[in-house]
């Protein structure tokens, strides 16, 4: 099984990669299955509404996925390419606690195979532009991040796996905060995830971002294994042709070395296990 379970297209505000091109490229790579996970970031971005102008910050559209067109296009792609590759419907929920009702309404509106639960901002302060990190110590940044993640997994249950669980590492220019200092917070999160029969993702974008460790780190993956976690997906976090499918085989080898025996694809929010 060769599957990529974190893929963005032009339906995400930070990609211009047409969905049909992604599928054609995946078929050319002999991929068996692909799951699209377009961005939704309530709190800082807005749904596209017919007749209303798109809001911009500079050249960046502050828009979530166009859900009706996305769902319609996926169905068209399944009809056209479904005999060559399995296509799954997903989204990446960039959630904050105060936005949970909006995500629940969206989840109830459409049939999903897979939901990545991610944090890209806290209190509407984004990570990528350093807004959330500014003026905070590393202790405050990391404890705040994992506390927010713990609140989400404790409050919201309609997701499949946690996306890039230690994403905050990517944006902290002071270097990675020691694992042992943050381990109790991470363990609290993982215990809820496992209890709820949810999982975590291995996000293979770590190399292209210049990180020294995997995402999540090998220490987090080992802890998840030791706590009894078994639900894992692997995704490239693709936004461009050169991202698609990268690092997936290497991620499988790393998981086997830790002691995992299986990883997952999803159908109608239910994990399907495959041997590594």
UniProtKB/TrEMBL annotation:
Domain PHP, residue spans: 4-205
Highest taxon listed in the record's lineage: Bacteria
Catalysed reactions, as listed in the record: L-histidinol phosphate + H2O = L-histidinol + phosphate
Main enzyme class: hydrolase
Pfam families (alphabetical): PHP
EC number: 3.1.3.15
InterPro entries: Histidinol_P_phosphatase_HisJ, PHP_dom, Pol/histidinol_Pase-like
Gene3D superfamilies, per the entry: Metal-dependent hydrolases (3.20.20.140)
Pathway: Amino-acid biosynthesis; L-histidine biosynthesis; L-histidine from 5-phospho-alpha-D-ribose 1-diphosphate: step 8/9
Keywords: Amino-acid biosynthesis, Histidine biosynthesis, Hydrolase
The family this protein is said to belong to: Belongs to the PHP hydrolase family. HisK subfamily.
NCBIfam families noted in UniProt: hisJ_fam
Protein name, per record: Histidinol-phosphatase
Biological source species: Faecalicoccus acidiformans
